[in-house]
Amino acid sequence: MKRLIYLLVAIAVLAGDQYTKRLISTRMKLGSEIPLVEGVFKLHHVRNDGAAFGILSDRDSLAKDLLFYATSTLAFGVLLYNAVK
What we know:
By secondary structure, the protein is mostly helical. Helix content is 59%, strand content 11%. It has a two-stranded antiparallel ribbon with strand order 1-2.
């Protein structure tokens, strides 16, 4: 039962993440911003060609793709191993 809850939370987070990305990319112009909490927090539409916080954004596409695929495959393997263990 505990694993099912984790799985459902993970699916909900993934779905929410993808939904908000789609919403922003289709409804906001690149570079535009929407204040959410005036003077404190705003939503700003930017593109990130690298990893978290722009890491590897200056590298060629093949190197980034290989690193991202390898990292995600490793992470998936660890999750799968822990799920069936």
